[in-house]
Design a protein that fits this description.
Elements: H1 33-36, E1 41-48, E2 52-55, E3 60-63, H2 71-74, H3 80-92, E4 95-103, H4 106-117
Parallel strand pairs: 1-4
Antiparallel strand pairs: 2-3
């Protein structure tokens, strides 16, 4: 699936970035936190990327600033971990009927499953 378009007029059959959440063809695109927040969807898919890692020493999740290309997040390194965790919390709660999650890091996936299944 293509990422949301970065142009105000859209690309081809895909709507512009600010309309992907409300247009039918937007269903065939991947969005980001900046355009998904504030909306609810029947179902959502979330990719937990390499910017969230499992720290075996503390048994907790940590954010890895080296694993992001988001200039907005890079602008405030002191709060990076708080922002990353909040972004995932927001995305994981957008689906009203369900949420599909893909983890790029298997240790992070295990961390989530242990807490979900007990």
């Amino acid at each position: 699936m293509p990422w949301e378009t970065k142009r105000d007029h859209g690309v081809g059959e895909y709507p512009p970035w600010h309309q992907w959440t409300i247009m039918e063809k937007g269903f065939e695109q991947v969005g980001c936190i900046y355009t998904a927040q504030g909306f609810e969807f029947d179902y959502i898919g979330v990719i937990i990327g390499p910017n969230l890692v499992y720290d075996s020493k503390t048994g907790s999740l940590k954010a890895d600033i080296k694993a992001t290309k988001d200039r907005t997040l890079l602008g405030d390194p002191d709060h990076f971990e708080t922002y990353v965790k909040n972004i995932y919390r927001v995305l994981l709660t957008r689906g009203m009927k369900g949420c599909y999650v893909y983890f790029t890091d298997k240790e992070v996936e295990e961390y989530f499953w242990e807490r979900i299944l007990g």
